[in-house]
Amino acid sequence: MGSEFVALSLPPILIGCLAAVACALPGNFLLLRRQALIGDAISHVVLPGIVVAFLLTGMVSTWPMMLGAAGAALVAVALIQIVQRVGRIEPGAAMGVVFTTMFAGGVLLLEQSDTSNVHLDVQHALYGNLESLIWLDATGWHSLLDPEALAWLPPELTRMAVVAALVALFIAALWRPLAISTFDEGFARTIGIPVTLLGLALVVVSAMAAVAAFDAVGSIIVIAMFICPPAAARLMTDRLATQVWISAGLALVSAVLGYVLAGYGPLWLGADDAVSAAGMIATVSGLILGGAALFGPKRRGQSG
Amino acid sequence: MMDLGYNTLLVATGAGLLGIAAGVTGAFLYLRKRSLVSDAISHATLPGVALAFIFMVALGGEGRNLVGLLGGAALSSLAGLAVVQWLTRRTRLGEDAAIGAVLSVFFGFGIVLLTVIQTLGAGRQAGLETFLLGSTAGMLRADAIVIAVGGALTLLACLLLRRPMTMVSFDAEYAATQGLVPARVDMGMMALALAVTTIGLKIVGLILIVALLILPAVAARFWTERAEVVALLAGVMGGLAGASGAVLSALAPDLPTGPIIVLVAAALFTLSLVFAPERGVLAGAIAYMRFRRQVHMRQGLLALAHGHRVHESYSRRLLGRAGLIRADGVVTDQGRRLAAWAARDERRWSYLRSRPEGAALAARYDGLTPIEDLVTPDQLRALDDAIASDGAGPQARGRVPEGRS
C-alpha cells in the first residue's frame, strides 16, 4: 500500500495541492478587485497559445507550450484592454468577446492541423490528466530520500513547486502595496504606488500560475481555484491576511479531498474505476464555497 | 449548395434562427450588463446533460435522446442560474465571483459525471463530449428537426418579449412606472438566454455558445444608440453568423461548426469595431485628426493676426498648404484676411463670454466654431455694435483673449 501510494497517488496529490495554492493566492486579490473572471479568460486562451506553439515548433514539449500559453494570456489581457478602451465596452463583455474568439481560433487551428498523432486535444486542455502524473521509480516512502529515484519525479511537480513558490514570494514581497491598491486605489496612487503597473504584475503572476497549473491539471481546476477558495474565505473573515491564509488552506483541502474522493470514492461505492480528479477537486471546492455561503460568519458583509 | 443535403439545410436553418434569437437576447443582456451570466448558464448545462444520460440509461433507454439531454441541460443550467442569483443577493460576493464559481464547479462536476458514464457504459460511447464544442457532423434527422424547431420557438418567444425587454433595457425605472416588473422581465430575459444556450449546445457547444450571446450584441452596439435597433442588428448579425457558420463547416472537413460560427461573429464584431460611424475606431481617428487640424489652423491664424511668426511645424504646414503663408513664413493677402477674420471672431466670443446675457450662447464656445454659425446676421450686427460702443470694456478691442480650446 505504502509503495503504491508513494508512486501513484503522492505526486498527483502534491501537484494538485501546489496548483491549487498557486491559483488561490492571487485569486484573493483578483476577487477583491472584481477581476475574478480574469482566471476564466486566461484559462480559455491557453489552448490557442499551446496550439500555436505546437505549430511553430512542431513538437509537444513543455517549454515552448508554456511560453505559447503565457504569450496568449498576455495577448488576451492586452486585447481585452484594447477592446474595452477603444470600443468603450464594459469589461465583462470585452472579456467575453476576446476569450471566446481566441478559444474558437484555437479549436479551429487544432482541427486543421495534423495533431492526431500527438497528445494534444481540447479535452486534455480542459481537464488535464492529473492521474497520469505518476512516479514510477518510487518503491516506498524511503524513495523520498533516494536521490536517484527523486531524479525521476514527474517534472510537473518541480515546475509547479517553483511556480507556487514564485507566486507566494510575489505576494509576500509586495503585500502592502498590493493590499493598499486593492482596497483604495486612489490613496495608493497618492502615496506613490505604481497602481497600474502593480495591477498588470498581478495579472501576469496569475497568468503564470494558470499556465503552469494548466499544464499539470487542466483549465477547470485553474478557474475553480482562482475563485472558490478565496470566495469562501472572503465569507469567513474581514481581514485580508486571514482571508489569504484560509483560502490557501481551503485550496489544500479541496485538492487532497478531491483527489482522494475521485480515486478511492468509487471503490468504496463498489465501482471499479476512478472518476476525474480535476473535476472532483473543482466540485469539492464548490461544496466548500456553498458551505461558506450558508454558514460563513461574514457572508453578508460587515454587518453580519 | 446542392450536395449539402437536407440535414445540413435543416441545421443551417436552425443555427440561423438560433443565431437571431441569440443576437436579440444577447443585445438585451448586454444593455443590462449581464452578458457573462450566460457563461455560467452554459457551463452549468454539463451536469444536466450527463445526469439526463444516466437517468435515461437507468430507465432502460438508449440515453442519447436529444430532447431528453437538452431537458436535463436546461434544468441544471436553471440550477446554476439560481445559484448565481443566490450568491449575488445573499452574500457579499460580486456577480463576477458568483459566475466564475458556478461555471467552474458545475463544469467540474459535469466532468466527474462524464467519467462516471465512461465507466458505467462499459464500451458504450456516449458521445457526450460533442456537447463541449458542438458537432453537426453526422447529425440525425430527428435531432436536426429538434434544433430547427427549438430555434424557431426561441425566436418567437424573443419577439413576444421584445417590447418589455426594450423598455427595461432603456430605463428600468420608467418601465416600472408603466406597469412592468423589471425583475420579472429580467427573468424572462434569462429564460431566453437559457433556451438559446440549451438549443445551441449541439451546434455551438457549451464552451462557445456564450460567444453567440455576446459578440453580435457588442458588435451591434457600435452602430446605434437605440436599444430596439441594437437588438434588431444583433439579431441580423447573429443569424448571419449562425447560418453561414453552419454552411461553411459543412463545406469542408475539419471545420468544426461551433468555432466557425463564433469566428464569423468575431469577424462581424471586428468590422463594427473598426468601421462603425461615430463609435468605430476609424471614425474616432478621423474625428481626432479633423479636430487637431482645426485647432492648429485656428491658433495659427490667431498668431498671424498678432503679427507673430508661426513656428509650430504642423501649423506651418497647414497654413502653407492653404496658401495663407509663403514657404518663408511671410503672410499672404489671403492669410491676412483670414487671420483678421479669426481675430474678430475671437473678439466677439470674448465679449459675449464677459456678459451675463451672453451666457446661453457662451456655453457653446469651444474655441473653434465661428460665432457666425450660431447667430443670425441681425444678432451679429447687434453684437458688433455693442462691442463698438463698449470699446473700453474689460476685454479691450484688439486684444486676443486667453480662451482657447
UniProtKB/TrEMBL annotation, chain A:
Q: Which InterPro entries match?
A: ABC_BtuC-like, ABC_TroCD
Segments crossing the lipid bilayer: 6-25, 37-56, 62-80, 92-110, 157-175, 187-210, 216-237, 244-262, 274-295
What the entry lists under Gene3D superfamilies is as follows: ABC transporter involved in vitamin B12 uptake, BtuC
Question: Where is this protein found?
Answer: Cell membrane
Which Gene Ontology BP annotations are present?
Answer: response to zinc ion; transmembrane transport
Specify the protein's topology with respect to the membrane: Multi-pass membrane protein
Q: Which domain of life is it from?
A: Bacteria
Which keywords does this chain's UniProt record carry?
Cell membrane, Membrane, Transmembrane, Transmembrane helix, Transport
Give an example GO cellular component term for this record: ATP-binding cassette (ABC) transporter complex
UniProt family annotation? Belongs to the ABC-3 integral membrane protein family.
What this protein is called in its record is: Manganese/zinc/iron transport system permease protein
From TrEMBL, chain B:
What InterPro entries does the annotation carry? ABC_BtuC-like, ABC_TroCD
Concerning its family, UniProt says:
Belongs to the ABC-3 integral membrane protein family.
Q: Which UniProt keywords apply?
A: Cell membrane, Membrane, Transmembrane, Transmembrane helix, Transport
Localization (cell): Cell membrane
One protein family per Pfam: ABC-3
Q: Give the source species.
A: Pseudooceanicola nitratireducens
One cellular-component annotation, GO? ATP-binding cassette (ABC) transporter complex
| A GO biological-process term | transmembrane transport
Stated membrane topology is:
Multi-pass membrane protein
In residue numbers, the region (Disordered) covers 385-405
Instruction: Output the Gene3D superfamilies linked to this UniProt entry.
Output: ABC transporter involved in vitamin B12 uptake, BtuC
Name this protein carries in UniProt: Manganese/zinc/iron transport system permease protein
Which residue windows are transmembrane per the record?
A: 6-31, 43-60, 66-87, 99-120, 140-162, 174-197, 203-223, 230-252, 258-288
